[in-house]
Amino acid sequence: MDELPEFPRQVLEVLREPLESRHICISRANAQVTYPADFLLVAAMNPCPCGYHNDGTNRCRCTPPQVERYTNKISGPLLDRIDLHVPVRAMPIEELQSKPDGEPSAAIRARVRESRNRQLQRQAKPNSELSGKELKQRCELGDAERHLLAQAMQKLNLSARAYDRTLRIARTIADMVGEEQINMTHLSEALGYRTLS
Ligand SMILES: [Zn+2]
């Protein structure tokens, strides 16, 4: 969904149910039907209506209330259900022209597949499908990691849902590098993906 805040608020809020439960329930006067709705949501938005807010230049002419009105179109509960928040900076032209090619998709695909296989071998399902209880079993944290997560919960004001999602992401980051135990590096990276929370 490109330009996410341009979608009507009620359309965005309807996404909350399937993002959480992977099915959608449609109720009419005399019937209720449940359909599977397991999908990957990828959404993009600008930081403000003109798109230049905080980009290191002073091109943005939006007023603070305008910026707030724009970002407030995405509700907290919807943001909570989005696992990875990734800020993308505009690239200066010199950098765009001098950058070497990135890692090929085929190599990344192999790494993702390996990580997924590791998850299936361990628990017969991908990390994304672990329940809260299963998460506790599969994501045992050391003292330092537990402390970091508790601090982040307070500072970033994270919800219980965001807590679970952060653990799931940390588990997946550990799986991506083939490590059994979630450590501070994995956890810090996972917390770094909650920038909009
Ligand atoms: Zn602006």
UniProtKB/TrEMBL annotation:
The lineage of its organism: Bacteria, Pseudomonadati, Pseudomonadota, Gammaproteobacteria, Cellvibrionales. Signal peptide: none annotated. Gene3D superfamilies: P-loop containing nucleotide triphosphate hydrolases. SUPFAM superfamilies: P-loop containing nucleoside triphosphate hydrolases (SSF52540). GO terms for molecular function: ATP binding. Residues 1-95 form the Magnesium chelatase ChlI-like catalytic domain. This is Magnesium chelatase, ChlI subunit. Transmembrane segments: none annotated. Residues 102-194 form the Mg chelatase-related protein C-terminal domain. Pfam families: Mg_chelatase, Mg_chelatase_C. InterPro entries: CHLI-like, Mg_chelat-rel_C, Mg_chelatse_chII-like_cat_dom, P-loop_NTPase.
